[in-house]
Hints:
Helix content: 40-55%
Order of helices and strands: EEHEHHHEHHEE
Strand content: 15-25%
Number of domains: 2
Largest sheet: 3 strands, mixed
Strand order of the largest sheet: 1-2-3
Number of strands: 6
Shape: elongated
Amino acid sequence: xxxxxxxxxxxxxxxxxxxxxxxxxxxxxxxxxxxxxxxxxxxxxxxxxxxxxxxxxxxxxxxxxxxxxxxxxxxxxxxxxxxxxxxxxxxxxxxxxxxxxxxxxxxxxxxxxxxxxxxxxxxxxxxxxxxxxxxx
Length: 136
């Protein structure tokens, strides 16, 4: 299960295109038709595509720092920051949310509350967004 800025998705991951057979095609057709009724979309993803570019490095950063849960007060403080201004990864690294800011942002990104373009490496200029599906 993956939560993105556009909604919730169920991903089936195959090692490469050679792994996609008739059974996979049938399952893809079935799940693509059935999951939207339950609020999910279906996506067949190739592991080789996931390994390209910065996706792995971004995922490792989120997993490394996003392990701890947030208190209600921390969550609200982050929400208020996003209501008033554009926040970048650099802002977070430079302490706009204090010493736990990176951990808070990574946790919320793992939860799908905060999003960024995972196809580009996290840098000081990377804009962070409050997910449209989550009420500000």
